[in-house]
Write a structure and sequence with these properties.
heterodimer; A: 296 residues; Elongation Factor Tu (Ef-tu), domain 3; 7-stranded antiparallel sheet; 7-stranded mixed sheet; B: 5-stranded parallel sheet; binds flavin-adenine dinucleotide; binds iron/sulfur cluster; binds FE2/S2 (inorganic) cluster; binds magnesium ion; FAD/NAD-bd_sf (chain B); oxidoreductase activity (chain B)
Chain lengths: 296, 461
Amino acid sequence: MFTIRKKELLANNIYLMDIEAPRVAKSCHPGQFVIVKMDEKGERIPLTICDYDREAGTVAIVFQAVGESTKRMADYEVGDTFRDFSGPLGCKSELIDEDPEELKKKSILFVAGGVGTAPVYPQVKWMHEQGYNVDCIIGARNKDLIILEEEMKKVARNVYVATDDGSYGFKGNVNDKIKDLVNNEGKHYDHVIAIGPIIMMKFVSILTKELGIPTTVSMNPIMVDGTGMCGACRLTVGGEVKFACVDGPEFDGHLVDFDESMKRQQMYKTQEGREILKEKEGATHKNGGCGCGGND
Amino acid sequence: MDMLTRIPVREQDPKVRAKNFEEVCLGYNQEEAQIEATRCLKCKNAKCITGCPVSIDIPGFIREVEAGNIEEAYHVISQYSALPAVCGRVCPQESQCEERCIRGIKGEPVSIGKLERFVADWARENGIQPKAAEVKNGKKVAVIGSGPAGLTCAGDLAKLGYDVTIFEALHEAGGVLTYGIPEFRLPKDTVVQSEIENVKVLGVKIETNVVIGKSTTVDELLEDEGFDAVFIGSGAGLPKFMGIPGENANGVFSANEYLTRNNLMKAFDVSYDTPIVAGKKVAVVGGGNVAMDAARTALRLGAEVHIVYRRSESELPARVEEVHHAKEEGIIFDLLTNPKEILVDEKGWVKGMTCVKMDLGEPDASGRRRPVEVPGSEFELELDTVIMSLGTSPNPLISSTTHGLDINKYKCIIADEEKGQTSKEGVYAGGDAVTGAATVILAMGAGKAAAKGIDEYLTNK
Ligand SMILES: Cc1cc2nc3c(=O)[nH]c(=O)nc-3n(C[C@H](O)[C@H](O)[C@H](O)COP(=O)(O)OP(=O)(O)OC[C@H]3O[C@@H](n4cnc5c(N)ncnc54)[C@H](O)[C@@H]3O)c2cc1C
Ligand SMILES: Cc1cc2nc3c(=O)[nH]c(=O)nc-3n(C[C@H](O)[C@H](O)[C@H](O)COP(=O)(O)OP(=O)(O)OC[C@H]3O[C@@H](n4cnc5c(N)ncnc54)[C@H](O)[C@@H]3O)c2cc1C
Ligand code: SF4
Ligand code: SF4
Ligand code: FES
Ligand SMILES: [Mg+2]
């Protein structure tokens, strides 16, 4: 059992929780993720490690209540426990093993979209602790969805906020802001790390390819085990099939087949729609023999 | 009574069971078991034992069954096997113990597996458990993976007085017994869970959600966590795909994913959150036990199911009993057929599969006749789901994070057969992680051998 030590509402529908998980806290690195299973009947939910305290033995997760499971998770309070909390999974961010001298010479831009700001934060924090300066764009549809801005300001050299509707900061999407920085403010970047919705990562990668800036993205396909056993998380990178849970989740944004990944993310949409139906209609929803809801 | 034929075992009617996840085979009752036991000749030189990878004293336990001493029969089996209710169900007995049975020379061999299952089920129903070691020796052993290899190794070491902890990556113990083999062949809550409980009764601790290579490493277990030896029984879980066009389409699954969603995550039960795309018309590519399990699962979820296999029926690697059951239930076998491409609709979902007919040519390295394409025989199967069941290989997570652990070109850990010793001192391995995908009982045999190896090593150290 893994106890929730802290719970905070960061923005509308976006929660941060500190979970007591000493083994994970001891060995995790930025870029990795965990799998949470709330209780006996819960799904295995992959979530990025957003911060960790090795001494206190806690790991922070930030999640957006978007569907059945994450909504249920939002109802958990401090002192409640998750049945399972497995990790760290996936590879650590490539920056961590890069030669410090090389890294020092580089100018790095992080691009965070929506709840993707959460996984960007530990990486920027790590860079800050090692003495590197990086810039960070935080983008969201509107002001209410901007998270971790204050925390980010403490660890990044420059934080630029961009909202689609202009309700806060720069008016426009993150790509507009990248162009603004490079074209109008004369900024130069050697590497971009973009984490957010797939569609955002796709368009950032198209832009940075034009600008000639190497780009890393963090993919979040559907997962089951997270250990390389099922292949649900497969995606195509540079024409090769990779398993995001063991080969990633970070990949070269200029090589990822984003369109395929976007389609694969939709795979259980109708299934989950049925879950909501089930909630509404109760037992009458059960039909089609097995009652799994997938065969009618 | 005709001593040449075995007492038939009761099964659920194929029409009924094709729609549920209840166990297919119902097993013997005590009366049937006792009659079947009389067929055993209690051979002095019992050939059957030589066919059992853990050398169960088969005539010994059958003698007790015949006399009606079922508890005693259970204690005989427990000396050799930690998972009799599992093995009695899933061992390929026909090619192991039963193949060598003297009774089988003239008639049908003794139903050793079904008798073993009866004894184990009876013990469970009557609350009989194995006996724990009385004295602890104070030495700590870590076991990685809670499949049959790990459970057996852990159980044997605990009986010898070792302090054993199993580390399991998933949230439930059991390995393939839990995530792979379906409920209708191997019930989870009753059979698998209770055999795992029996290993715990011996004093073994099981820590789930620990991924060795990520949460901690073999080196750290030895250097920082105070373990005197490590056994690696991490299986061969990495699924293979064919590499044909369309394979990443929505609706294409590895058998592991399909089975994991259903067995480990219980997607067939609506009260569990994990979804499954069951499919209406499903093709399962492959012909092994895993393919049969995936096919029969899809059938129970309401689909029309085709097995697509490139050789002919006699080359099907699955157990005869499984093929027979699959046919009875209505699985369609498209033999001598090989997929070329998966056809995808505009939204990215499977809509069909182009296949080609095959002929059997000259024998290949495996001694089986090699399938060759029949030119111009391409045809399309209309489908919404494809399940790839092409075999699995060991996951490199552990080998790539352990210093000095040698693997072969198939990524299998190199370990000697007799004692499970690897290239690294204090580290032993066995089961699918060493051999590649094999069987439950071979994994158990390897776990047993390694327990002996570890005991010798730590006793002499
Ligand atoms: C490596 C990784 C890291 C992630 N990190 C975060 C994070 O830090 N914060 C956060 O809010 N979300 C994160 N996600 C996404 C998160 O796992 C999903 O939002 C969550 O599983 C949705 O569950 P649901 O039942 O509430 O919603 P659903 O209604 O089931 O699904 C909503 C969306 O989530 C996707 N999804 C559903 N099930 C899974 C699954 N098992 N694996 C992956 N995606 C799924 C669906 O494609 C859909 O787009 C991450 C995903 C991955 C793979
Ligand atoms: C669908 C299916 C049906 C089968 N049917 C039969 C049958 O009828 N009869 C038969 O004899 N055999 C059958 N087999 C084969 C048999 O199940 C395997 O040969 C056997 O389970 C191997 O045992 P094992 O202990 O070596 O590994 P596994 O059972 O694979 O267990 C390995 C365990 O190690 C864990 N693990 C892996 N990596 C790590 C890590 N890094 N850290 C911690 N834990 C880790 C895994 O999660 C898993 O729980 C079947 C296999 C499948 C997939
Ligand atoms: S464990 Fe398997 S091989 Fe050994 S006696 Fe039992 S059924 Fe036969
Ligand atoms: S070989 Fe057959 S008949 Fe002889 S002891 Fe074994 S099971 Fe009995
Ligand atoms: S989630 Fe199963 S292989 Fe990646
Ligand atoms: Mg969900």
